[in-house]
Amino acid sequence: MSKKNNSDKLTVFALGGVGEIGKNMYVVQYANDIVVVDSGLKFPEEDMLGIDIVIPDISYLTENRDKVRGILLTHGHEDHIGGLPYVLKHLNVPVYGTKLTLGLVENKLKEANLLGETKRILIDEDSEVVLGSTLKASFFRTNHSIPDSVGICIATPEGNVVHTGDFKFDHTPVNGQYANLQRMAAIGEEGVLVLMSDSTNAEKPGFTPSEKNVGVVLEDIFRKAAQRVVIATFASNVHRIQQVVNAAESTGRKITVIGRSMVNVVAIASDLGYLNVPDGMLIEPEEVNKMAADRVVVLCTGSQGEPMSALTRMARSTHRKVDILPGDTVIIAATPVPGNEKYVGRTIDELFRLGADVIYSGANSGIHVSGHGSQEELKLMLNLMKPKFFLPIHGEYRMQRRHALLAEAVGVDPDNIFITDIGEIVEVQGGAARRAGKVTAGNVLIDGLGVGDVGNIVLRDRKLLSQDGILVVVVTLSKQDGTIMSGPDIISRGFVYVRESEGLLDEANRIVSSTLLKLMSENVNEWASLKTGVKDALGRFLYEQTRRRPMILPIIMEV
Amino acid sequence: MSKKNNSDKLTVFALGGVGEIGKNMYVVQYANDIVVVDSGLKFPEEDMLGIDIVIPDISYLTENRDKVRGILLTHGHEDHIGGLPYVLKHLNVPVYGTKLTLGLVENKLKEANLLGETKRILIDEDSEVVLGSTLKASFFRTNHSIPDSVGICIATPEGNVVHTGDFKFDHTPVNGQYANLQRMAAIGEEGVLVLMSDSTNAEKPGFTPSEKNVGVVLEDIFRKAAQRVVIATFASNVHRIQQVVNAAESTGRKITVIGRSMVNVVAIASDLGYLNVPDGMLIEPEEVNKMAADRVVVLCTGSQGEPMSALTRMARSTHRKVDILPGDTVIIAATPVPGNEKYVGRTIDELFRLGADVIYSGANSGIHVSGHGSQEELKLMLNLMKPKFFLPIHGEYRMQRRHALLAEAVGVDPDNIFITDIGEIVEVQGGAARRAGKVTAGNVLIDGLGVGDVGNIVLRDRKLLSQDGILVVVVTLSKQDGTIMSGPDIISRGFVYVRESEGLLDEANRIVSSTLLKLMSENVNEWASLKTGVKDALGRFLYEQTRRRPMILPIIMEV
Q1: Residue A214 exposure: Cα atoms within 13 Å on the Cβ side
Q2: Sequential DSSP letters for B322-390
């Protein structure tokens, strides 16, 4: 291990996950050894029209594929593992993860037909992983909103690089798996050269409450509910699901599980021993209507108001198997992710309209806690690790910035704190760190089966089309004498109701004809000029009449 | 007054503002007298692509135009007066409002060329307005985030109908204008048949803090700021603006005002005496750079992260007159309206990147308070008015529902509480109230100059176009022998990058040709069938290849 060469150096950078929440992917490189931490996806921003998901640009990794020693996973959330099926297609390297994490990954790889060809290596807190000739990784248990989360310590010839993964400090964990404070303290004692730490809740003062608090509230709600309890939460929150099971058990209710990802996670987590469901506790959705209402819990997806999710369908009375009945108690055990507030609000309204009693977050309802540590926990991590250099990661810029201030407050030298953007390299050599340029980094947009075939021009067109629609103008000209043989015909999509706008479209027709005839009488005959002429004249007319700018597509034929 | 006829009855309903936040418009009718309260607009939902604003469907009013006695305005916010320019075009009736409200309305009507033909009648708290032969309105002062807000009591032969407008109880109002508790108590004492009350904050426990609290915080920030202070807030919040002026004065700073609506409101409110700005306090934006940084306040629009607003431009360094400099203090004195969280977050990130210190809401920053009363204030209003019948208005369904529970809690008979949707009539006769059907109600969408010419089909097309774009397929067939004379040519917009998808489009071309030739060989010659054939075959192929469903527009010509 640790063959140190004077010209070798350590570089650390993010390909995703800084300046954003999502598509986490971090790179640690020493000499010819590259280690990747996580490989996540992000859901599209509102201006990425029609896009399904977004993954990081991994050009740097594919260009250096012979150096990539593996992908280490911190935990099984989509923003940390969701990019794997795309990344592994181009980069066949071993994947390291804890049992539950690999369980979730395997499910994904199976769907993508990549399971056979991917080397998966199970790690636990006591594993040591040798990565190339210079790097070695070890792990420490953390608390998060999914079991089996770990932080990673990568030993390099320059010193230790610690990546916290996503974490909180839950002093009363649901599964009895405490964050390993002793291990973290020992790493700090040994010395941390670079710390990369989760900034998600850097804006939140205080301490994030224990997941166990939610269990107490749930049991109370279950007990008081006169009829069925319907509860939606994040499918991956196995701790929460365990508490739903516990509350159901202690209040004599059976559970039916609805929604693809919820069914998946319950199956995988039960199989692997992360979820303890008493025999006979689970019932099929079809059995719900045969049971007394106060003996039933419906556990489902849809806590973000996602249009196709189980809860949304129930709220709209379009679910095939379960209806919401007056008097049912519906719990939405989640906080809306920014951007989803309106969807969640609409679901709540629809549930109330059906006569349900809806319990949702806000006003200290106690039915949700975050999986990320607040300011006091971030400071605790900083003081356990006592890093020389610090990179706040996993957050929007404002969160990174707050996290940097926290690090300053606990004594990290401000000159040793690096708020980076994706691709920005921090280089460490001889105990000194500096910014050292950029590698290629960015968003790769996935639309259907297409990876990266939708870019700015396509998005700009979708944006234009979405605002004012399109007019296709079809005209046939005579080759001989430059008269109009047929048309112009104007076809409108997404612009105006044709029936109510006949006058406008008739006038548009006349303008196209007269523009063409005028241009041709001036001996303008190149199609490009004729098309531009039609576009300009028609665009001007429509803007004057409607203040809209539909896309105009002239199709001029010659016979 | 009060000619009572046994068959006459009172009806109350909303044309906008229930089941939604926005486009407030309420109707009170007795016999042949109709009174409208407010005439607001709403900003489009995220599925209303390309739409600028939304107003209520006023068919009921235009069909009964001879009975409409006037529009009473509670205050000058857009969701209460923004629909007037559209409504008055179709319904020329008198408009009643307080001084500031009418000042803001006049500005709007001037822009719409409606000022001359609109009768505007100034009211104050002591006005009594006779409306037709059966109705009479009086007013009571309330507190809200704009001065000169009033509630309205409409005396009818059946009894008093009270509309609170938007309100909070601010016991230390910035302008010294207290909510008139005595007047409200007297109305309650006289007897309230129907109360319609603001549900915006019905989910919030406790009491909304006084606007004055914000002033204390602002002065403290202004004093400590080493360089310029930039503050964005709602332009209509004249109280907030007054406190910015006060804080600037006491800390020796001058103010420049940026953003069209902010400039407008400052001018109108100053002219009408609602804003007290010391002489020489205001400076032009051009002077900012000549002044010492710690002598300047920039008061601007953009507190919602609106893309074209002053603060957003400054954050992106694209504002013509003011740059954000490192060390500037930027205050965003507002809470993001649901749906705007991401925009606001992005603005904050950009400001931090420029080196500014950004102070924004959350974590008890104290820089914003709501203009709407919380649960304790809603109960106070209910107990002041002691209504027989209660309609929670001005809110999404879940807020109306919470408000109904509050009313029950203070003793309103649950059978006398009506949560209504837009258009749903509550009828009162002989002291008994009941639901009595619906009038036409809905959204009228305004896109550019078009009012109501964009409906579901156009929106559906825009949605489709925004998701996967459009392919236009042009083919010329021979009349004689059914061969393809030219094409197929495929033009793609918003689907894929043409250059990177040549293979796909070539194959698409072949599929169109073979489909057409096959159909024609089977003697299918009607254009409609040929077009459907092309659409189906091409659509199927593209979905298989890309999992996308672009709109396909076949254009088949015959020569």
Answers
A1: 31
A2: ----TT-EEEE-SPPPTT-HHHHHHHHHHHHHTT-EEEESSTT--S---SS--HHHHHHHHHHH-EEEE
| Cβ A360 vs Cβ A315: under 8 Å | no
Q: Can B403 be counted among the known catalytic residues? A: no
Chain segment B323-346, per-residue pLDDT in tens: 999 999 999 999 988 888 889 999
User: Is A372 one of the annotated active-site residues of the chain?
Assistant: yes
The whole-angstrom separation of Cα B465 and Cα B549 is 9
Query: Tens of pLDDT along A103-153?
Result: 999 999 999 999 999 999 999 999 999 999 999 999 999 999 999 999 999
Hey, are the CB atoms on A341 and B338 less than 8 Å from each other?
Answer: yes
pTM of the model: 0.89
List of E strands, A259-381: 296-300, 329-332, 357-360
Does residue B171 have a known ligand-binding role? no
Q: Is the pLDDT at A405 greater than 90, yes or no?
A: yes
- Residue A467, amino acid: Q
In the predicted structure, residue B504 carries a pLDDT above the cut 50: yes
In contact, A148 and A238? CB cutoff 8 Å: no
Q: What is the pLDDT of residue B478?
A: 80
CA–CA separation, A39 and A56 (whole Å): 8
Concatenated DSSP letters of B383-420 = HHH-EEEEEEESB-HHHHHHHHHHHHHTT--GGGB---
d(CA A142, CA A151): 6
Residue B308 predicted with pLDDT over 60: yes
Q: Which of B41, B116, B121, B53 is nearest to B79 (CA)?
A: B41
User: What separation in angstroms does the CA of B539 have from each of A74, A296, A307, B547?
Assistant: 41, 44, 24, 10
Q: Which residues of B touch A339 (CB under 8 A)?
A: 341-342
Check the annotation: does B370 bind a ligand. yes
Q: What separation in angstroms does the CA of B161 have from each of A90, B72, B385, B400?
A: 70, 13, 10, 18
In this structure, are residues B423 and B441 in contact, taking their beta carbons and an 8 Å threshold? yes
How many Cβ atoms are within 10 Å of B233's Cβ, its own excluded? 26
Q: What is the pLDDT of residues A435-469, one digit of tens each?
A: 999 999 999 999 887 777 778 888 998 999 999 99
**B263: closest CA among B247, B275, B246?**
B275
For chains A and B, CB pairs below 8 A equal 182
Residue A491 and residue B465: Cβ atoms within 8 Å?
Answer: no
What is the Cα–Cα distance from B180 to B183, expressed in whole angstroms? Answer: 5
Chain A residues in contact with B494 (beta carbon < 8 A): 49-50, 458-459, 461-462, 464-465
The helix or strand, by DSSP H or E, that contains position A514, with its residue range, turns out to be helix A502-521
C-alpha span between A25 and A393 (Å, rounded): 10
What pLDDT, in 10s, does the model give residues B483-492?
887 878 898 8
CB-based contact B555 A559, cutoff 8 Å:
no
Q: What percent of chain B has pLDDT over 70?
A: 98
Nearest to B230 by CA among B128, B303, B155, B145: B303
Q: Where do the domains of chain A lie, and which CATH numbers do they carry? A: 10-206+370-451 (3.60.15.10), 211-360 (3.40.50.10710), 469-558 (3.10.20.580)
pLDDT of residue B353: 95
Residue B7, burial from CB neighbour count under 10 angstroms (0-12, 13-18, 19+): exposed
Do A470 and B454 make contact, defined as CB atoms within 8 angstroms?
no
DSSP B258-279: ESHHHHHHHHHHHHTTSS---T
Please check if A237 is assigned to a binding site.
Answer: yes
Lowest mean pLDDT among A182-191, A483-492, B549-558: A483-492
The average confidence (pLDDT) of chain A is 93
The residue among B486, B467, B490, B491 whose CA lies nearest residue B547 is B467
- Report whether the peptide linkage leading into residue A488 is cis, meaning its omega lies within 30 degrees of zero: yes
DSSP-derived letter for residue A499 is G
Scanning A114-133 for CB atoms below 8 A from B yields none
Average pLDDT for B73-90: 96
